[in-house]
Design a protein that fits this description.
five-stranded antiparallel β-sheet, about 10% helix, 3 helices
């Protein structure tokens, strides 16, 4: 089966384009034990433990006291942290996690040096893979949001997964979406009061405005070149400078 889409672009992970900026910082990978956080926690396979170039990174603020290093500890797989498997899963993810940049050099969990860390960036023009459920459109802001296995996708499945050659199918990446994506709305609903009003009007507009405010910490920038899901897109990273705490 060909990996080429109807638009002629390959659904294949490539070495992403990154331009050096003053916003490049050294981070470290979340330490993953064999049990990955304790009993009943999902175990990440060996390939998914690796952080690849161009993947969205997240950190959990409450974990900072667990490490002796002042470096931010991040990962691109949602299973790197332990969350409840019940209906509060997505709420906990949205509440505890924070966007932490885009991986520049990647990290090999088996052969890499934890103390050395790896490079991430929170600014400048970057080419990344669209890991969302819909196409990304040029000129619109892009958010990277956590997802839940209980959230239905536009393709009809029950769990959001990527289909990018070079990325393990089991890896649970964060979804790059616009404000009108069902994944964005689900994340906002998890931390909002009540569901989004179905009818267009003042109530729906007010709910949308509140959703953008609550999920502002997941905004990564503006899309310059759009693309369908699992394809390469160009994004100017900028919004993260207002929400990321370095130190």
């Amino acid at each position: 089966m060909s990996s080429r889409s109807s638009y002629g672009r390959l659904n294949k992970r490539v070495k992403v384009t990154h331009r050096m900026t003053p916003y490049d910082v050294v981070v470290r990978s979340v330490i993953l034990s064999d049990g990955n956080g304790g009993d009943n926690a999902p175990v990440i396979d060996a390939e998914s433990r690796n952080i690849l170039e161009g993947e969205v990174l997240m950190e959990r603020d409450t974990d900072r006291s667990l490490y002796l290093s002042n470096h931010r500890h991040v990962h691109s797989d949602q299973r790197a942290w332990r969350f409840p498997t019940d209906a509060t899963e997505l709420q906990q993810k949205v509440t505890d996690l924070r966007y932490a940049g885009i991986s520049v050099t990647g990290f090999d969990a088996r052969h890499g040096q934890y103390q050395q860390g790896f490079m991430s960036t929170i600014g400048g023009l970057n080419s990344i893979m669209n890991t969302g459920d819909r196409a990304l459109v040029a000129g619109k802001e892009v958010y990277a949001v956590p997802t839940s296995s209980a959230v239905p996708t536009s393709s009809g499945g029950n769990e959001h997964k990527t289909n990018i050659i070079g990325v393990p199918r089991s890896k649970k990446l964060f979804a790059t979406v616009h404000e009108d994506s069902p994944l964005f709305i689900a994340a906002a609903t998890a931390v909002s009061v009540g569901a989004r009003p179905a009818a267009a009007g003042d109530e729906q507009t007010a709910w949308d405005r509140q959703a953008v405010q609550k999920l502002r910490k997941f905004c990564i920038g503006t899309c310059l070149r759009g693309g369908r899901r699992n394809q390469l897109v160009d994004v100017v990273l900028h919004s993260s400078a207002n929400v990321i705490h370095v130190g």
